[in-house]
Inverse folding.
């Protein structure tokens, strides 16, 4: 879609909770000194986009521009930005990604790694940050190869990733494997994704659809004693209410749950930790995380977690395809502009 004039830009506004959507032309964003103006080429879809639309989560007022992740080309930089310049291709965590141009703080952006496509780059930031926040900030498991982060804590004796084929789950598996080559990493997913997750570093995969999933996980754990800690990427505990039974009674019994808007209880003896990517802002080394993706991917330390699929083109198409994120499995969906 083209802008109405040289001084305006188009955005897809969600007019009220639940919709509808409308393309509106507004003035181009003014840049703060630490911000960058990105001309969007790819917009990544995330489940939180539907939560914002349907439940009003993180929406201060309506109309509102949804979207938190995308990639494009820098058009302008603020006066304090040093490491990015106009013409650079970047991907980032973007507030209000469903628009042609978005102003983003420079530390929320990474230059596109040279060895991947822009569509793939758009899928990187949110899941990477969320996985790091769960591992380092919530569970206090160091990831020494990520410079500048806290080294407080220690590796668990074993870990279970619920939702291994989610973007965050696939990110967590490879981050943990890079840091701890011998760590038992168990994960749940559909059987069709087991080979890919094994390739990313999972030790053992369990079919989440199995009627005996809890017993299957426990049997696969070291000594069949249960796992030390859990990262729940998909609110599995809301539907599998006895999932905490897979925790080793003699272990740390920590359950890190990615905030999805679907709360659920855990037994009293389990330490439930709620994980939000927003903790990146305040955590030690947090502002280096997204920019570090460029080198990590180029050197092969970190891989695009999931296959990326283009499901549409143009701002208007976002409204038509957004609900696909509710049922997608083992891939990341994006819309091109």
């Amino acid at each position: 879609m083209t802008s109405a004039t040289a001084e305006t830009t188009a955005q897809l506004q969600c007019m009220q909770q639940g919709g509808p959507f409308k393309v509106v032309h507004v003035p181009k964003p003014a840049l703060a000194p630490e911000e960058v103006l990105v001309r969007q080429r790819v917009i990544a879809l995330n489940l939180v986009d539907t939560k914002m639309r349907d439940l009003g989560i993180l929406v201060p007022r309506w109309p509102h521009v949804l979207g938190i992740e995308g990639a494009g080309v820098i058009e302008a930089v603020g006066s304090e930005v040093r490491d990015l310049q106009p013409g650079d291709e970047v991907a980032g965590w973007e507030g209000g990604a469903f628009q042609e141009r978005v102003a983003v703080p420079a530390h929320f952006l990474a230059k596109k790694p040279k060895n991947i496509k822009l569509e793939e780059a758009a899928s990187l930031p949110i899941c990477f940050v969320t996985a790091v926040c769960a591992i380092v900030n919530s569970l206090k498991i160091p990831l020494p190869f990520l410079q500048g982060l806290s080294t407080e804590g220690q590796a668990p004796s074993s870990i279970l990733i619920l939702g291994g084929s989610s973007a965050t789950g696939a990110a967590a598996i490879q981050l943990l494997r890079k840091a701890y080559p011998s760590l038992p990493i168990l994960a749940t997913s559909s059987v069709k994704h087991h080979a890919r997750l094994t390739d990313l570093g999972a030790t053992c995969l369990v079919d989440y659809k199995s009627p005996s999933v809890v017993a299957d996980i426990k049997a696969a754990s070291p000594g069949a004693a249960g796992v030390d800690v859990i990262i729940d990427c998909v609110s599995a505990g809301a539907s599998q209410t006895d999932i905490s039974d897979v925790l080793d009674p003699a272990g740390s019994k920590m359950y890190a749950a990615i905030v999805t808007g679907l709360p659920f209880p855990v037994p009293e003896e389990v330490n439930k930790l709620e994980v939000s990517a927003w903790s990146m802002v305040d955590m030690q080394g947090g502002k280096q995380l997204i920019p570090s993706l460029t080198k990590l991917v180029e050197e092969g330390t970190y891989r695009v977690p999931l296959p990326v699929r283009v499901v549409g083109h143009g701002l208007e198409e976002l409204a038509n395809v957004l609900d696909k994120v509710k049922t997608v499995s083992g891939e990341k969906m994006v819309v091109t502009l």
Notes: The chain has a mean pLDDT of 95. DSSP finds nine helices and 16 strands in the chain.
